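Milestone 3.1: sequence recovery, worked example.
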């Protein structure tokens, strides 16, 4: 029977991501196994630094990091089962997820997919799809049409 040492679960703090986390917690972990929660803070598209002072931008950036870390910590505390560690990264979701999986030598990534198709999928893209194509390890996608 497979027992996982490191399972990476990306989260955007949505209900979809929480369902994927529920799947991950149920996996068979080795005695020293751990679940790694990762959140990527996406770069802003709008050049916000042009409309606010640099000091305000740094303060805003710090608040975003603190808030995201608090959310990760709350999720981690609620998990019963494997040991949990959190990772907060700056960058594009799929790249940070794959990079973290490689750095952490993850056995598996468990990620939610929103089940979008057609024009919505074309316009918005799919982080899960990119992770499946680029991940250095197996990926379990949890398809969720509505939560």
């Amino acid at each position: 029977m497979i027992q996982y040492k490191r399972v990476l679960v990306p989260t955007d703090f949505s209900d979809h991501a929480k369902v994927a986390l529920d799947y991950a917690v149920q996996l068979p972990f080795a005695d020293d196994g751990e679940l790694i929660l990762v959140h990527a803070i996406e770069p802003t598209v709008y050049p916000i630094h042009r409309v606010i002072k640099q000091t305000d931008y740094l303060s805003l950036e710090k608040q975003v990091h603190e808030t995201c870390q608090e959310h990760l910590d709350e999720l981690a505390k609620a998990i019963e089962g494997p040991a949990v560690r959190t990772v907060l990264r700056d960058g594009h979701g799929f790249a940070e997820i794959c990079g973290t999986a490689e750095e952490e030598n993850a056995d598996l990534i468990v990620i939610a997919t929103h089940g979008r198709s057609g024009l919505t999928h074309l316009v918005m893209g799919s982080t899960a799809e990119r992770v499946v194509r680029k991940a250095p390890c197996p990926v379990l996608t949890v398809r969720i049409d509505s939560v």
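The chain has a mean pLDDT of 86. The first helix runs from residue 15 to 25.
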